[in-house]
Amino acid sequence: MKFDTSATTNPIDQLKAVGQPIHRIDGPLKTTGKAVYAYEWHDPGTRYAYGYIVGSPIAKGRMRSIDATAAKSAPGVIAVVTSDGTGELKKGKYNTAKLFGGTEIQHYHQAIAVVVAESFEQARAAAALVKIDYAEEKGVFDLAAARDTAVKPKEGEPDSAAGDFDAAFDTAAVKFDQTYTTPDQSHAMMEPHASIAAWNGDELTVWTSSQMVDWWRTDLATTLGIDKEKVHIMSPFIGGGFGCKLFLRADAVLAALGAREARRPVKVALPRPFLMNNTTHRPATIQRIRIGAGRDGKITAIAHESWSGDLPGGGVEVAVQQTRLLYAGANRMTAMRLATLDLPEGNAMRAPGEAPGMMALEIAIDEMAERLDLDPVEFRILNDTQVDPENPERPFSHRDLVGCLRTGAERFGWEGRIRQPASRREGNWLIGMGVAAAFRNNLVVASGARVRLDREGIVTVETDMTDIGTGSYTIIAQTAAEMLGVPIDKVAVSLGDSRFPVSSGSGGQFGGNSSTAGVYAACVKLREAVAQKLGFNNADNLVFADGEVRSGDRRMPLSQAAGDEGLVAEDRIEFGKLTETHQQSTFGAHFVEVAVDVATGETRVRRMLAVCAAGRILNPITARSQVIGAMTMGVGAALSEELVVDKERGFFVNHDLASYEVPVNADIPHQEVIFLDETDPMSSPMKAKGIAELGLCGVAAAVANAIYNATGIRVRDYPITLDKLVDRLPDVA
Fold it and tell me: Could you count the other beta carbons within 10 Å of the beta carbon of residue 43?
C-alpha cells in the first residue's frame, strides 16, 4: 500500500479498540516471568555453553600478539576464538568500529577474543588468562581540546541558512550569545546486550536483544560472510534499548563465532562495564547559541552551532535540527562540526539530536526572554510559526505548540510563578518553576505485516517488529481488532522473528505509527480476501464488527471466510512525498517545579507536567508510560547522568550502575501527562505520530530553568550537580 495522499475516514476512526486504554496484552507474561528474553531462551535437552568476551585494555594502538594457551587448558574451557582463527571479518553497514577487533585497536573494550566454557564462571576465569601484547598509541579523548580540529561532516546536511544572520544579529536591539555543554551519556537499560547462537549445518539461529531485526540479520550475515537467507534472528522480548540495540553488537557476533568453534549453542551476555565502553553512547556536545530580537520580543536572528566527536567514519550528533524548525525568525544559521575522537562509538540514543540540542536551546530561549523582560511561556508563543522557518512555503502538517504551552501553563499553575529568581522559600528550600518546549520530528518508515484468519475467528499478526517495552504488542493487536471487528482477546501477535515480514523496527519514535500502518495495510488486503470469499462485491462498503461481516441486512460470521485452511494476507505500507511537501513534527511543553537546598545545593524535583501534541494517541496507557519514562530520563540528564572520560587512557570511568547515576524512585515525584486531542491525516492511515522520544526533549532544560528561578544561578554545563551550585547560593539567613 502506498500512502501518498492525506488519509480520509477509514475503519481506524471508529476507535472501538484503537485509542482505548487497553492494558498490555504481554503484561501477564512479563509479570509472571513467562516472557522469554534473549539470554533466557532454553530448549530442554540442549547443553548450552557460555562465552565471555575479552576486551581491549587500551583505547588505541595495535595488538602485537595474543596467547590463549593458558586459557585453553583452563577448567571447563571448550574453545577460545581470536582473530588469528577467524581472519578478517567484514564490518556491517551500521557499525562504525569493527565488532571483533583484529590487530588494530580502535577503542577501549573493543572485543578481541571470546572464551567458551561449560559455565559462565569458568569462561570468565579463563578469559583473564588470555595474554595480549599491545603497542599502545596516543589517542584523542577530549572534545574540548579537539574542538578546533573539528571538520564539516561529509554526509547529511550539517549546515543550513536563511536570510542574513550576521547582519540581522549585528543590528538586533537585544542580543544573546552563550555556549552550553552536554556530556557523554549511557543508555543504561535494564537488560544487557545478550545473545544465544546455534548452528545447524551452515544455518545460524540467534536469539538476541535487537530493536531492528532485519538490520541485525543483514549486518550479521555481512560480518560472518554468509548468505543472509541462512541467518534466523529471534527477538520477541527486549528489556530496554533506547537506541543502543538498533545496530548489531559484539555479543551476537561472538556468540555465533563461539558456537561455530564449540559446535554447541553458546550464550554471550555483555557485563555492565562493556555496555558503556564496548557498545554505543550519546556523544558529548559543545553548543553555541546566538539570538537577536526586537524590543517587541520577536526573534529576528537565530544561530545554533554544535561540536561533537566520534571515531573515524562515525557521525555527528545532530543537535541543531530542532532549531531549524521550532521558532520563527527570518535570518537563521545552523552548523555542525565533527571531531575525531578515539572514544567508544557515539551513536543514537533516545531522541538523538533533539534531546541534547534542546538541553541548550531551551535554556537560551529562557535567557533571552529574561533579557526582553518577557514571560518565558509568552516569549515562546510570540515566536510560534506554522511554516518551516527555513522554507516558508512548506507548512507543518499539524502543529499546536501554542496549545501545549497554554494548556500546560493553566494546569500547572504557572501564574503563581514568581518571576524574580530566589524569591520563594520554604524553610531551607528555595522553590522555582521552569518551562521548556518539546519538539521531535515525526519519522515514517516502510513496514510490512502478515495477517492470518482461522476458522475459530482468531486473527494472528506476524511482523518482525520489536517491543522494547513500548507496547508494540498491544497497539498492533488494537489495530487488527479495529480493522477486522473482533475483540482484542481474539487477536494474537507474534513479533521479533526474521521469518516474518520486515517492519519498521523500533527506533526514532517511528515504530508505533509505522508498524501499525503496516498492519493496517495487511488488514485491508485481508478484508478484501474476506469479501471475495463470502461473496460480497465491495470490501469498502463492508462493516466488520462483533466478529461479523455486514452489508445492509446481510450478516455473516468472519470465521466463515477462513474455512478449514484459513485466510492469509500480507502487505506493507510505503510512504510517498507528504513528508516533503509538509513538515511533520511532534510538539509539547514541559513544566517542572524544583526545590533546592539553600545550604547544600541539593535539588529535588517536586512536580512535573508534560503536554503533548502527537497526532492520534493509539493507546493512552502505553503512551503515558513512554512519556513518564522519558520525563524520568530527562531528570537524569539534568541532574546526574554523565559518562566521565579518563582523558589520558580514553575510557569511561564510571562504567556501571553504581557510579553512572540514573534517577531512582525516590528522585521522581508525581508526573502528569496530557495528550491534546488531535489527528494528523498526513502522517499515516493511523493519523498518529511518534510519542516515545518527544517526552524527553526539553525536560532537562525545564529542570535547569526551574533551578535558575529557584536560586538565580544559571548553569550551562550539564549535569547540574550540587558542586555547580553550592558556592553561588544565596546567603543562608
Answer: 9
573 vs 501: CA distance, rounded Å = 11
Rounded to whole angstroms, how far apart are CA atoms 224 and 202?
11
Query: What does each C-alpha distance from 518 to 324, 445, 465, 502, 707 come to in angstroms?
Result: 30, 10, 10, 10, 44
- Per DSSP, 470 falls in state S
Amino acid symbol at 300: T
Q: Average pLDDT, whole number, for the chain?
A: 97
Dihedral of the alpha carbons of 53, 57, 60, 62, in degrees to the nearest 10? -70
Pairwise CA distance, residues 169 & 289, whole Å: 12
Kindly state the cell numbers that stand for 179: 555556549
CB 208 within 8 Å of CB 40: no
Q: Reply yes or no on whether the pLDDT at 733 is more than 90.
A: no
Question: How far lies 606's CA from each of 135, 343, 411, 669, 721, in Å?
Answer: 52, 36, 15, 6, 17
On whether the CB atoms of residues 338 and 148 are closer than 8 A, the answer is no
How confident is the model over 219-231, as pLDDT tens digits? 999 999 999 999 9
Give 304's Cβ-side CA count (13 Å radius). 28
Cα(482)–Cα(490) distance, integer angstroms: 11
- Identify the H or E element spanning 124: helix 120-127
Main-chain phi, psi angles of 550, to 5 degrees? -125, 145
pLDDT in tens, 168-215: 999 999 999 999 999 999 999 999 999 999 999 999 999 999 999 999
- As a whole number of angstroms, the distance between CA 82 and CA 385 comes to 57
Place of cell 470490501: 539
Per-residue pLDDT band at 42 (split at 50, 70, 90): confident
Closest-CA residue to 440 (of 244, 586, 604, 561): 586
Residues classed as catalytic: 693
Strands (E), 341-397: 387-388, 391-395
Residues 6+ apart with CB under 8 A from 665: none
What are the two backbone dihedrals, phi and then psi, of residue 223, each rounded to the nearest 5 degrees?
A: -60, -40
Helix ranges (H only) for 178-245 are: 213-224
Tally of CB atoms within 10 A around 658:
8
The per-residue pLDDT for range 359-393, each reduced to its tens digit, is: 999 999 999 999 999 999 999 999 999 999 999 99
Phi, psi of 622 (to 5 degrees): -70, -35
- How far is residue 558's CA from residue 490's CA, in Å, rounded to a whole number? 12
In this predicted model, what pLDDT tens digit does every residue of 572-602 receive, in sequence order? 999 999 999 999 999 999 999 999 999 999 9
Residue 557 has, within 13 A of its CA and on its CB side, a CA count of: 10
Cβ atoms of 279 and 344 closer than 8 Å: yes
Give the Cα separation of 727 and 709 in Å (integer). 17
Strand segments (E) across 102-240? 104-105, 111-117, 131-136, 160-162, 174-182, 194-200, 203-208, 231-234
Cis peptide preceding 44, ω within 30 of 0: no
Q: What is the pLDDT of residues 60-92, one digit of tens each?
A: 999 999 999 999 999 999 999 998 888 779 999
Contacts of 509 (CB under 8 A, 6+ apart): 351, 440, 442, 443, 586, 689, 690, 691, 692, 693, 694
Alpha carbon of 120 to those of 52, 414, 693: distances in Å? Answer: 7, 55, 36
Instruction: Give one word for 316, left, alpha or beta, with left for phi > 0 and alpha for psi -120 to 50.
Output: beta
- What would the grid cell of residue 489 be? 482477546
Task: Find the largest Cα–Cα distance for the chain.
Answer: 85
Exposure string (b/e) for 58-82, b if CB count within 10 Å is 16 or more?
Answer: bbbbebeebebeebeebebbbbbbb
pLDDT higher than 90, residue 447? yes
Cβ neighbours for 524, distance < 8 A, ≥ 6 positions apart: 1, 483, 539, 571
